[in-house]
Amino acid sequence: MLYLVGLGLGDAEDITVKGLQAVRRCSRVYLEAYTSILTVGKEALEEYYGKELILADRDLVEQGADEILKDADVTDVAFLVVGDPFGATTHSDLVLRAVNAGIPYKVIHNASIMNAVGCCGLQLYNFGETVSLVFWTESWRPESFYDKICKKQKSWTPLPLSAG
Prior knowledge:
Elements: E1 2-6, H1 17-25, E2 28-32, H2 42-49, E3 54-56, H3 58-63, H4 65-69, E4 77-81, H5 89-100, E5 105-108, H6 113-116, H7 144-155
Parallel strand pairs: 1-4, 1-5, 2-3, 2-4
């Protein structure tokens, strides 16, 4: 079984009970390490979860997905994501690869920045398309977000200033 487990937004203790139980059953646990920033170190997660974590950078997830999925049809493997597992399209791709390989999977959701924005009194349905700003590396510097921001900025209507 492949488990995609959301870790929430804060620290090691934000994992759900269901997520922690799944992680503790797994023979391998991967920590996605490119779409979000952890607020605690990998070591804090390892201590709290009682498991060694394997860092999964973009190359491993996108080019080496077979390594993550290896033997997941006969043993439990977890893929941990800061926030919610489906905050990035590469995570959906991992599920599609599992399905194509006949590997069962289970998603364990958690809070993400997308739903935590409500704490500020903002509502997502008022903002339109989401734009992700990615972390650049030495060899990967996509600029696809720029056009989306420009398009969005053109559609913004300034709020009227109240007098007085």
